[in-house]
Predict the 3D structure of the following.
Amino acid sequence: MAGWTSDSGDSDKFECDSDGEAGPSSAPAMRNFDAPGPSTLGSNGWINGEVPPTSLIERYVVMGFPKEMVTKSIKEIGHGDADALLELLLTYKALDDDDAVGNNHSTSGCILPVVENDDDLDFENWDGDDDAGGRESSSDDSGYEDFMREMSERDEKINSLVNMFFSEDEANRAIIRCGADVDIFVLVDSIGASQVAEDCHSRNLSDNQVTDRCFNSFGGRKKAILMEESRKKRKRYRGGGQGNRPSLDGSDEESTPLPNPMVGFNLPGYRGPSVTRMLSKLDTGPPFFYYENVARAPKGEWAKISRNLFDIQPEFVDSLHLCAAARKRGYIHNLPIENRSPLLPLPPKTIFEAFPHYKKWWPSWDTRTHLNCLQTCVASAKLTERIQRALVSSSNPPPKSVQKYVMDECKKWNLVWVGKNKVAPLEPHEMELLLGFPKDHTRGVGKTQRYKSLGNSFQVDTVAYHLSVLRRMFPNGVRVLSLFTSIGGGEVALHKLGIHMRVVVSVEIGEANRRILRGWWDQTQTGALIEIPDVKSLTDERVASFVSRFGGFDLVIGGSPCNNLAGSNRHHRDGLEGKHSALFYDYVRILNFVNSAMGGRRL
């Protein structure tokens, strides 16, 4: 069967485990014509020929800054913005102090590059792809190569800083201050100095208080802690050769080794080696349980998950083998793995099978047959406009550098061709199709919420394949305890399999998700739906009352929120101990009590 190939390659490079908010991409810093340039400098080297008051320079000298550093900084940015001047001085100060302990950085490399359009630097609502609105595309191949090289260097620096646990906001600001061509460690120190400045100003002190307190802090414990953290991060980044550096796609050495191809224990039409597994009688259902989380979890997390769920081996599946989009997930369950059957009719397996109307505009150099992981957010209008400008200004076919840039963005954001030289994100109803939901399943909530809910959902065809064994076992229907239900992917899978749900106790904190599930349930189901907003309110006593009321549960299904496990969520990828993923232990607690109440094994 065609398509049973390695899961590595492009889909690995851009596949994102979207249950965390997708990280924004970044583009080159532009020039700011509002910042001082050579034409605004007087003959004496000062901005607009205005010499700053001697008292101002002396004031910063008294604070502990060298006079040459103060004059240099004022010449670069003026003295009208005290906050900006303070931040630049702190940056230079941090770099000089770090040089003294053996790091040979040149502060001359950390200047304030000028930026073309202030509107492109809205870091509070940073979209990463929106920052190149002022750059005009050129049809010259060498110009595009420079443009792409600049983009690549900036993206690499930002991703490196993010993997060193700085925020993307901090990384972007540092590159704007120092430029994208400086050493990564210069950027680290610049961020550190900026953090000190922000800490000082966050105290709402007067100028004199800032002078007296903040710089003493900078010269003391705060600075020592900051520099030590910076050195640790640099050491971690430097540790060994390129092979030891963190990968930029979440698939680094910290991830659990995954099978390749990622086809689980078996898939329809797959002719690979057969897999058998033996579960003890104590581990078999009912109650059956089914737990999902992202495949690319940090090192040791899947071992920990398995250890808490009867030491059952995870089943890793990439949904691209069942539909037209990748979705790498791991499943731990005690369901039988023999006699599974897929949903019929089979879902479309390629992009053109799913969306044949896009073929008209699809360029020959875009060789994608599958989409990547469906994310919780989509590309911005500015990004798609930038791609269109690049293509319009190029030859046909465009230069390799332009093709690479366009393909990288198309793969990352799942862009499709909707016109000549025109790409666009998937619409929510198209994501519903790819994920196996009925059309308009999420309609009725805002478009942004629809993307978020769909990006965090089950892939219905994959889940249905695993649950299909329940059809023969429960001809009269099932009683389901659904934990972290999202928009009801498990329930939709059971419905598509023709399995009647006699009762579903659903735990889901998202109001919009509950509204989506309730709307679908009222239109399609006759059983009882009991909704619980917060898993913390599902106490052991309450679980016991449900077991007594319904005679137990046949299936406990769910997947704890995996924001802290997902590869794309680079800011808070702290595993099961993270704020969201720690809810996994509530899944274990509740499953444990259901087993106990029904006379089965406790974990």
Notes: The beta strands are 288-294, 315-318, 328-333, 416-419, 422-424, 478-483, 501-507, 528-532, 555-558. The chain has two domains: 25-244, 288-347+435-597. The chain has a mean pLDDT of 76. The first strand starts at residue 288 and ends at 294.
